[in-house]
Amino acid sequence: MNRWLRAAMIAGATIAVGWFVWSSWPPDSQYTPVEISFAVVGLSFMVAGIAAWQRWPASRLGLLFSIVGYLYLVPYILVNLANPVAWTIGNVTEGISGAALAYLGLAWPSGRLRSRFECGVVVANYAQNIAFNTAATMFWNPAFSGCNASCPANVLLIGDGSRSAWNTLGTVEALTGFVITGIVLTLIVRHWRSARGWSRRAMIPLLWIAPAVAAENILTGNLFHFSGLVTYALLPLVLLAGPALFVISTVRARTAGGALGTAIVDLEPGASPGRLRDALARALGDSTLQLAFPQPGGAGYLDTSGQAVDADRPDNGRAVVPVAGSDGAVLVYEEGLELEPHLVKLTAAAASMALEHARLQAEVQAQLEQVRASRARIVEAGDAERRRLERDLHDGAQQRLVMLSLALGMARDRAAGADPELEALITSAGKEAREALTELRELARGIHPAVLTETGLAGAIQALVERSPVAVTITAVPDERFPAAIEATAYFVVSEALANVAKHAMADGAQVTIRGLPGRLMVEVSDDGTGGARAEGGSGLRGLADRVASVGGVLRVDSPPGRGTRLEADLPCP
Amino acid sequence: MSVTPAAAAPARPRLRVVIAEDAVLLREGLRRVLTDAGLDVAGVAGDADDLLRLVSASRPDVVLTDIRMPPAQSTEGLQAALEIRRRWPGTAVIVLSQHVETEHLFELLAGDPRGIGYVLKERVADLAQFSDAIRRVAAGESVIDPQVVSRLVARPRRDSPLQTLTERELAVLGLMAEGRSNHAIAAQLFMSPKTVETHVGNLFAKLGLLPAAEDHRRVLAVLTYLRG
């Protein structure tokens, strides 16, 4: 809101209320409370006008609130001015704030009337009020109220006036007023019933303004003859409720921005777009809010409940705002929210942030998945390479060394007896060849245990146990076969663990347990050594944990100092 | 055992041997040395299927087979050996292995250990020893590679009765595990057969094993004990 406009409105309100107080000075005992309540009610509408202008700059509601406030006070100021023309105008416009209040109710919340008919109703209401006031004033002689020279003259007075005519006119005014008020109330109820989402919520203060319109009509009308004090004390209280309620709702609406922030923060990570929509709708107060995504191939938009949405030409009473950086998602909201463009912008920004966050999260998840898969592939490729290497050694170098041994054996038999020196030479060459074979066999086994591929875990673990320098017992090991990567990992765990036991644990014995559970393979190696092994330590445990993780498993190390080491690998196994 | 002068022995028919080995050079080399050693090589095979056909056709006394053979280079030779023993129980089989691990050995011995040999491939270099192994399995003995046995015997153990054996008894135990008879053990350790029998009785008692009269039962009992 323009600060000059706000300053002008504050100045106007101050002048109007100040003038009202000045015009009714000095206070006389009987009507002072009534005058105070008048000032308060007038002021309350003016304050509500400023609030409305600030909250909904695009709405004329602020103007209408202010007009009600001014029209409420001005006739009384004029009557109190002790000037005949002013007095007459004051009387002609008396009660005209009721018509303005009806206008406010009908034009809620945009400040614009919805149809020509409603325009007609408003004009008729004003005209009825002024026409009857004018006519009645013509028959009102100020002397009827007992003041003679002290009262200003009635410039419209016809002759000496007529109390009965004045009374009759008052009754007819009240009756026509009833009809018009009835029409106004009916229209307001229809507005309320057809309002959806945000607009319906924005109409809550109207729940008070409508009864106020009715109350003013009944209390000030000439039909029921309430005593002056009831009329002038009760009516202000009823009237006050409208602007008060509006100001309260305005203050609450200011927290909607904060509610949006809270809604986004409270959204659990990975929440579906549907949950995001619900959170935004709650924070915004628009239960009709839709979050819609473009369908592939230009097949229009679908909202989070699967309903088709035309984002280019929204339905009547709906408006669309794009969600930035979200591949074309849109928010479709109740049109009334256009009055709060800031809130709409905030909502779109919040949605954009949440969707971006979800997208990034999905991306990171996908990348992580890729890295996991590629790690598993690298390890498997490594395993395959080791298998190939072992096979090559077996079929190549080992075979050739056997051949060589055989040939040397034959050569030695030939040389036997004939040339003892040559025989000794060949014997020693054969011994070298055999030792080379033994070394090569150990090397090949270290690269990859053929027995694992050939017979599975049971044989391979047995072989490990047989060559361990520490006494090892096998508690359990399944006979069935598992996926190659799982078998290789389980073997690697036991092999590394037993190597560690031999190197570091100073243990008398160790125990190997492998159990196939539904969906997983549990590998456990424990010893009775010194303990104190740490997974983060420089030992092979780090590599072991990596290896276990490569197949999606978990390695646990329990190694309290002095109480042995227990290594447990939990391998997923389809 | 009655002592018969060698000269008086009737001319024994030469042992018929079949060789299965996928490396051509080694296969041909084996054929040559075995023929030179006085054995009748009835045929050679390059894979397990060939071997089975050959055995079916020529019904040899002894089959020599590599464990790993085409097509999968896995345990085809071992499977063929088991198949041969199932179909022609009298046929002796020596499996040539590159592994000192006992997994295959026990698979092989699980049926009837008589006439079974598990020998590391490099033993072929020592012709005398190798042809002796062939003759032993042909005679129904079991032949387990000394290196395989010594690894089993040397395994570290906790609170095992094995630790109470004397050095002599351990030596007797190892030779039993290799499939040797009491006579052979006596000859190798320069003892009388009687002493060997005493040692055997003692160590069986210490290990809590039931004394077994037949050599082949004994081999299995001892190997199973050592492996467990």
Tell me what the structure shows:
Chain A is of the alpha+beta class. Chain A has three domains: 3-254; 257-371, GAF domain (Beta-Lactamase, 2-Layer Sandwich); 455-572, Histidine kinase-like ATPase, C-terminal domain (Heat Shock Protein 90), CATH 3.30.565.10. Chain A is 63% helix and 10% strand. Chain A contains 18 helices and ten strands. In chain A, helix 2 (32-55) runs antiparallel to helix 3, helix 2 (32-55) packs parallel to helix 10 and helix 11 (256-266) runs parallel beside helix 13. The longest helix of chain A is centred in the middle third of the chain and has 75 residues, at 341-415. Chain A is rod-shaped, with a radius of gyration of 47 Å. The model of chain A has no long low-confidence stretch (mean pLDDT 85). By secondary structure, chain B is an alpha/beta fold. Chain B contains ten helices and six strands; from the N terminus they run βαβαβαβαβαβααααα. The radius of gyration of chain B is 18 Å and the shape is globular. At the A-B interface, helix 13, helix 14, helix 15 and helix 16 of A face helix 1 and helix 4 of B.
